[in-house]
C-alpha cells in the first residue's frame, strides 16, 4: 500500500515536474515570440521611417525639378507670347504695307500707261524724224557724190596748176556715214545672224542701251558691258532676254557684261524685256563710233556712253579700225592731245575696233550736218554744269559736308556768270564755282548763262535699325558685331562658365537654366537671360562635386525681399520655390565661392538667409 | 581715305543692291586710281570684293544676309567690346555719320577713354576705345545712342554652328544648264581644279564650285554620295577635317592666328576673330594673320572649325 502511495506520489511528482517544465518552456517561447515581434515591429517602424524620409526627399527633388521645368516653360511661354505679339504686329504692318503697295502699284500702272502712250508718240515722231534724216542723208550722199565727181573733174583740169593753200576746215574731210545718236531708234531689220524682230506691239517702249567700260590697272579693258536704261514707273526687277535684272539705280538696270561685243556692235543690238503683262525694248543702234565719258558726266563708272564729246571732260572713244585716221584727225581738231590708241592686242578691246583713251577735248568744233558720223567727235559750245566728286546720294543730291565741285563744260566766255541761291558765285582756284552758303544743307538753285538747275545737300538719317541678319536657331540673332534675342525682348547677355549653367537673380523667382551646347568644348559662353543674374551655380547643386564645383558671382546685387506671394500665379509660385530650393541646396552642400572675398561671402549669406526666411514664412502660404 | 566716304555713303543709303555697291566703289575710288589686280580667290581680290570683305568683317555692313539677300544693308552703330589684360577695348562698328562720330569721340574723351584712330587701306578709320572697365564703355554707348556688345567675339562664336557634315534631309541638287564653269577643290594642293558635271555627280565626297557669269558662285559639298549647297568655307573645313588637314597656327606669345588665305574661315567666325583687334587680317604670301586673338577665342574658333591647334 505504501509502495502504491509512493508510486502515486512519485507519479504525481513526475506529472507536476512535467507540467512545470512544460509551462516554463511555453512561457519562454512566448517571451521569445514577443521579443521577436518587438524587434520586427521596430525594424518595420525603422523601415517605414526610412521610406518616409526617402519619399520626402524624392518629393522635394521632384518638386524642385518641377519648379525648374515650370520656370523654363514659363520663360518659353513668355518668349512665345512676345514672338506672337511681334508676329501680329509684323502681320499688321505687312497688311498696311501691302495695301500701300497695292495703291502704289495702281498709281504706277496708270503712270506707266501714260508713259507708254507718250513713248509711243515719241517713237512715231522719232521714226518720222529718222526717215526724214535717212532721206536727207541719201540726198546729201548723192549731192556729195555729185560734188566729188565734179571736183575730180575739176582737179583733173587743174592738175598742172600750182596748189592752193588749204582752207582750214573745222573737221577733216571724211566719208559721209550715218551717225545715229543714242536716242531710241525706230524698229529696224537686224543685220547678221541675230534674231530678227519687228515691233508688233505698238504699246512697247524703246529705251536706250548704253555702253559701259571699266579699265583695269594694267591698262586693259576689265569690263565692257551694256546697261539697260530704266525710267520712272518701271519695276525694280525685270526680265530681259530671259534673265532677271535688278534695278541698279533710278536710271539703269544691272549692267550686262557682253561677250563678242565687237561682233554685236556691227549690228543693231535689240533686247526685249517684260514684267508681267508689260513689255519694253532696248536698242543700241549700229554705228562705227561710240563716245564714252567719265562717270561724273555720263553717270556710268568708269566710262559710259554719251551722244558726243563734252568739253574738258575725260573720254574714251571706241571706233572701227577703218576710221582710225578720221578719228585721230577729229580729236586733234577738238584739241585732244596725248591720247592713247589701244587695238585688239590689248586685253578686252573687241576685235575690229580701236579704243582711244585719255581723250580730253578743249575746243568746241562746229558740226557739219546732223547725220555726219564724225559729229560725235565735235564738242558743243553748250554750257552744262559738271559736278565733280563729293558723295552723291541720288542723281542731284549729295551728302552734306561732301558737296561736289561745280564746274561747267562748254566754252565759258568772259561774261559767263553763275549764281547760287541768288548769290553771285566766284571761281575757286580749282576752277569750280562757289557762293555764300552754296554747301549748306538743303536744296540749292544754280543759275548759269541762260540755264537753271537744282541740287541738294542732305544729312544722314541716323535711324538705323537692327534686324535678324543671321539666325542659326540658338535663340539669338547676329547683326553686325552684336547679338540679340530673336523674340525681340531686352534679354540680358551674360558670360557664364559652361560648368555653371544654373543662374539665380536678385529677386526670388529669378532662376534660369541655360541649355549649354554639346557640340563645342569651351570654358565660357555668352547666353541671353531674361533677368540680370547674380549667381551662377552648377547644374544640380545638391549633387555637385564639392572639390571642383564653385559658386560664381556674376553681379553684386543684394537680394530683393519678397513682398507678397499669395496672389501670385502658380508659375510665379513655382519659380519662387525653385529660387529658394536652389539657394538652399547649394548652401546645404556648402559649395565654395569662386572668389572668396568678404563681400562675396556676405552677399551669399544674405541670399541664403533670405531663402531660409522665405522657406519658413511663406512655404505654407505657397502650397 | 575713300573707304571712309564709302562707309558714309552706305550709312546714308541704308541698304541697296550689289550693283549699287559696285557703282559706288567705282565712283568713290576712281579719282585715286585705287584699284588692285584681278586675281584668283587665293590671292588678292578685286577692290570691290576686298572692300566688301573688309566692311563685312568689321561688322559695318551685312551682305547677302537675311533681309538683304541680293545686296547689302548697313548695321546700326555698335561698340563691340572684348576684355584685355589692360582693361576693356571696344571697336566702333556699323553705320556712321560725321555728327555721330564727333559725338562719340567727344563723349569718349569726357569719360577718360583712350581713343585710337587707325588708318589702313581699304578699311574705314578704325576707332578703338579702351577703358578700365565695361561700365565706362556701356556709359559711352548710353550717352551717344550706340548699341553695346560686351564680349563681342565670344558672343558671336557662342551662337555659330560648327563646321559639321550636313544632314541628309537638307540635300540639294547641282544647278542645271551647260553654262556653268565647274571646279573641284583639291585638298592636297589646296587649290581649285577644273572638272565637269559628270565627274562632280560621280564623286562620293568632294567640294565643287559652280561659276556663271551672271550669278554669284555656288558651292556644293558631295558627302556620302549626296549633294549639299553649303557656304564655301563651311564646305572646305568639313572636307579638310575628313582629310586630316591641319590649317590653324596659333602663336600664344604674340596672340596671332595664321591660316592659308584659300581656307578663309566662315565670315561670321572671321568677324569674331577680326573684332579682337578691330582690323582685318594681314595678307602676306597667301597667308592671313589675325592679330590680338586671345587663347580662349582661338580655342573656341578652332573647335567650331573642327581643327586641332598647333
For the structure shown, list the relevant keywords.
heterodimer, A: 623 residues, 6 helices, B: 310 residues, five-stranded mixed beta sheet, five-stranded antiparallel beta sheet, 10 helices, globular
Give a structural overview.
The complex is a heterodimer of chains A (623) and B (310). Chain A has 623 residues and is an alpha+beta fold. Among the domains of chain A are: 204-381, no CATH class; 385-458, no CATH class; 486-622, no CATH class. Chain A is built from 6 helices and 32 strands. In chain A, the strands form 7 sheets. In chain A, strands 1, 2, 3, 4, 5, 6, 7, 8, 9, 10, 11 and 12 form a 12-stranded mixed beta sheet that branches. Chain A has a 6-stranded mixed beta sheet with strand order 14-15-22-21-17-18, with no helix packed on it. In chain A, strands 28-27-30-31-32 form a 5-stranded mixed beta sheet. In chain A, helix 1 (2-157) crosses helix 5 (570-588) and helix 5 crosses helix 6. By secondary structure, chain B is α+β, with helices and mostly antiparallel strands. Chain B has a 5-stranded mixed beta sheet, sandwiched between helices. In chain B, strands 10-9-11-12-13 form a 5-stranded antiparallel beta sheet. The longest helix of chain B is centred in the middle third of the chain and has 13 residues, at 98-110. Chains A and B meet through strand 5, strand 23, strand 24 and strand 29 of A and helix 1, helix 2, helix 4, strand 8 and helix 6 of B.
The best one-word shape of chain A is elongated
Instruction: Note the beta-strand portion of chain B.
Output: 25-35%
The SS-based structural class of chain A is alpha+beta
Q: Profile the largest sheet of chain A.
A: 12 strands, mixed
Give the uncertain stretches of chain A in residue-range form. Answer: 151-203
Spans of chain B of at least 5 consecutive residues whose pLDDT stays below 50 are 30-43
End-to-end separation of chain A in angstroms reads 91 Å
Helical amount of chain B: 25-40%
Give the strand tally of chain B: 17
> How confident overall, as mean pLDDT of chain B?
89
Spatial gap, N to C terminus of chain B: 38 Å
Report Rg of chain A.
48 Å
Query: Largest chain interface and its two residue counts?
Result: A-B, 58 and 71 residues
Helix content of chain A: 25-40%
What is the gyration radius of chain B calculated from CA atoms? Answer: 20 Å
Oligomer: heterodimer
Amino acid at each position: 500500500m505504501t509502495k502504491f502511495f509512493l508510486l502515486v506520489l512519485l507519479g504525481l511528482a513526475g506529472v507536476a515536474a512535467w507540467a512545470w517544465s512544460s509551462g516554463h518552456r511555453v512561457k519562454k517561447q512566448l517571451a521569445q515570440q514577443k521579443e521577436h515581434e518587438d524587434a520586427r515591429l521596430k525594424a518595420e517602424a525603422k523601415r517605414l521611417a526610412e521610406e518616409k524620409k526617402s519619399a520626402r526627399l524624392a518629393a522635394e527633388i521632384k518638386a524642385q525639378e518641377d519648379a525648374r521645368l515650370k520656370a523654363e516653360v514659363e520663360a518659353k511661354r513668355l518668349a512665345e507670347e512676345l514672338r506672337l505679339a511681334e508676329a501680329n504686329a509684323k502681320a499688321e504692318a505687312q497688311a498696311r504695307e501691302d495695301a500701300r503697295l497695292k495703291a502704289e502699284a495702281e498709281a504706277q500702272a496708270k503712270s506707266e500707261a501714260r508713259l507708254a502712250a507718250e513713248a509711243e508718240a515719241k517713237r512715231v515722231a522719232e521714226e518720222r524724224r529718222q526717215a526724214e534724216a535717212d532721206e536727207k542723208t541719201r540726198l546729201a550722199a548723192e549731192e556729195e557724190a555729185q560734188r566729188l565727181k565734179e571736183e575730180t573733174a575739176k582737179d583733173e583740169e587743174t592738175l598742172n596748176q600750182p596748189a592752193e593753200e588749204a582752207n582750214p576746215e573745222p573737221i577733216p574731210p571724211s566719208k559721209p556715214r550715218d551717225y545715229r545718236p543714242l536716242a531710241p531708234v525706230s524698229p529696224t531689220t537686224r543685220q547678221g545672224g541675230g534674231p530678227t524682230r519687228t515691233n508688233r506691239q505698238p504699246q512697247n517702249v524703246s529705251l536706250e542701251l548704253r555702253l559701259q567700260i571699266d579699265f583695269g590697272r594694267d591698262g586693259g579693258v576689265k569690263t565692257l558691258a551694256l546697261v539697260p536704261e530704266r525710267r520712272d514707273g518701271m519695276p525694280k526687277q525685270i526680265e530681259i532676254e530671259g534673265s532677271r535684272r535688278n534695278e541698279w539705280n533710278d536710271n539703269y538696270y544691272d549692267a550686262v557684261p557682253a561677250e563678242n561685243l565687237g561682233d554685236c556692235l556691227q549690228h543693231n543690238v535689240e533686247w526685249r524685256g517684260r514684267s508681267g503683262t508689260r513689255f519694253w525694248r532696248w536698242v543700241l543702234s549700229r554705228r562705227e563710233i561710240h563716245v564714252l565719258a567719265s562717270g561724273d558726266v555720263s553717270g556710268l563708272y568708269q566710262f559710259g556712253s554719251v551722244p558726243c564729246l563734252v568739253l574738258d571732260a575725260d573720254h574714251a572713244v571706241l571706233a572701227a579700225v577703218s576710221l582710225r585716221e578720221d578719228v585721230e584727225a577729229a580729236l586733234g581738231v577738238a584739241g585732244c592731245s596725248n591720247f592713247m590708241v589701244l587695238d585688239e592686242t590689248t586685253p578686252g578691246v573687241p576685235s575690229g575696233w580701236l579704243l582711244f583713251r585719255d581723250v580730253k577735248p578743249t575746243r568746241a568744233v562746229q558740226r557739219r550736218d546732223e547725220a555726219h558720223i564724225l559729229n560725235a567727235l565735235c564738242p558743243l559750245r553748250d554750257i552744262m554744269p559738271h559736278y565733280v566728286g563729293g558723295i552723291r546720294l541720288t542723281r542731284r543730291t549729295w551728302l552734306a559736308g561732301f558737296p561736289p565741285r561745280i564746274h561747267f563744260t562748254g566754252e565759258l566766255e568772259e561774261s559767263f556768270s553763275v549764281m547760287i541761291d541768288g548769290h553771285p558765285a566766284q571761281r575757286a582756284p580749282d576752277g569750280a564755282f562757289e557762293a555764300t552758303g552754296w554747301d549748306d544743307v538743303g536744296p540749292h538753285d544754280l543759275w548759269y548763262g541762260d540755264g537753271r538747275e537744282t541740287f541738294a545737300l542732305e544729312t544722314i538719317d541716323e535711324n538705323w535699325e537692327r534686324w535678324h541678319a543671321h539666325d542659326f536657331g540658338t535663340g539669338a540673332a547676329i547683326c553686325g558685331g552684336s547679338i540679340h534675342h530673336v523674340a525681340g525682348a531686352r534679354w540680358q547677355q551674360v558670360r557664364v562658365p559652361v560648368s555653371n549653367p544654373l543662374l539665380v537673380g536678385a529677386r526670388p523667382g529669378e532662376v534660369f537654366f541655360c541649355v549649354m551646347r554639346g557640340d563645342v568644348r569651351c570654358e565660357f559662353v555668352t547666353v541671353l537671360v531674361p533677368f540680370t543674374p547674380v549667381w551662377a551655380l552648377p547644374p544640380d547643386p545638391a549633387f555637385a562635386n564639392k572639390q571642383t564645383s564653385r559658386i560664381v558671382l556674376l553681379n553684386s546685387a543684394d537680394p530683393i525681399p519678397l513682398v507678397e506671394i499669395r496672389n501670385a500665379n502658380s508659375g510665379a509660385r513655382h519659380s519662387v520655390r525653385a529660387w529658394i530650393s536652389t539657394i538652399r541646396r547649394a548652401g546645404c552642400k556648402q559649395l565654395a565661392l569662386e572668389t572668396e572675398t568678404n563681400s562675396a561671402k556676405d552677399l551669399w549669406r544674405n541670399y541664403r538667409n533670405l531663402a531660409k526666411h522665405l522657406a519658413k514664412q511663406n512655404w505654407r502660404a505657397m502650397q | 581715305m575713300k573707304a571712309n566716304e564709302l562707309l558714309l555713303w552706305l550709312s546714308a543709303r541704308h541698304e541697296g543692291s550689289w550693283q549699287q555697291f559696285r557703282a559706288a566703289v567705282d565712283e568713290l575710288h576712281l579719282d585715286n586710281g585705287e584699284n588692285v589686280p584681278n586675281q584668283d580667290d587665293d590671292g588678292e581680290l578685286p577692290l570691290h570684293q576686298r572692300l566688301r570683305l573688309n566692311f563685312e568683317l568689321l561688322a559695318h555692313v551685312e551682305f547677302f544676309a537675311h533681309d538683304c539677300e541680293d545686296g547689302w544693308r548697313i548695321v546700326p552703330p555698335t561698340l563691340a567690346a572684348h576684355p584685355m589684360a589692360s582693361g576693356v577695348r571696344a571697336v566702333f562698328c556699323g553705320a556712321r555719320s560725321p555728327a555721330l562720330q564727333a559725338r562719340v569721340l567727344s563723349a569718349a574723351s569726357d569719360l577718360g577713354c583712350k581713343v585710337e584712330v587707325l588708318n589702313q587701306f581699304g578699311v574705314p578709320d578704325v576707332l578703338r576705345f579702351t577703358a578700365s572697365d565695361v561700365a565706362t564703355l556701356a556709359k559711352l554707348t548710353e550717352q551717344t545712342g550706340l548699341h553695346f556688345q560686351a564680349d563681342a567675339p565670344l558672343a558671336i562664336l557662342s551662337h555659330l554652328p560648327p563646321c559639321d557634315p550636313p544632314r541628309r534631309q537638307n540635300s540639294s541638287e547641282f544647278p542645271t544648264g551647260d553654262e556653268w564653269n565647274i571646279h573641284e577643290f583639291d585638298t592636297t594642293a589646296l587649290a581649285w581644279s577644273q572638272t565637269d558635271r559628270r565627274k562632280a555627280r560621280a564623286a562620293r565626297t568632294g567640294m565643287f564650285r559652280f561659276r556663271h557669269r551672271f550669278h554669284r558662285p555656288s558651292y556644293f559639298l558631295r558627302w556620302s554620295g549626296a549633294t549639299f549647297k553649303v557656304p564655301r568655307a563651311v564646305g572646305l573645313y568639313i572636307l579638310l577635317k575628313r582629310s586630316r588637314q591641319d590649317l590653324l597656327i596659333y602663336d600664344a606669345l604674340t596672340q596671332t592666328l595664321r591660316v592659308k588665305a584659300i581656307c578663309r574661315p566662315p565670315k561670321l567666325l572671321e568677324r569674331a576673330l577680326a573684332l579682337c583687334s578691330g582690323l582685318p587680317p594681314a595678307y602676306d604670301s597667301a597667308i592671313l594673320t589675325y592679330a590680338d586673338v586671345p587663347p580662349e577665342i582661338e580655342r573656341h574658333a578652332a573647335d567650331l572649325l573642327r581643327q586641332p591647334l598647333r
